[in-house]
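User: structure tokens for this one?
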Amino acid sequence: MGEGKTLPTYFCRNCENPLALGEDIISKKFVGASGPAFMFSNAMNLVIGPKIERKLITGSYVVADVMCGKCGETLGWKYVETFHLRQRYKEGMFVIEKLKLTKKL
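Assistant:
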């Protein structure tokens, strides 16, 4: 039986709190406030802020900022609701900025 590729675990760059698994990356083509960002289907050890309506590149959404559960660093956001059918796949997904992450195998 062949061995699968080992995917990294992503951690908070500030405090090394584990945040997400490589197998949960949906896309590496997102843009956050500090530049490139990754979309994850699941994330852990986060604090989710209040829901707010925000205009993003692809339209208006209800989102919630996400912060590291250990150090409180703002990392990105969670899509709560979209108003466009073509964007519905984003609901429940997490976008975390690449500059806020470090990864380990």
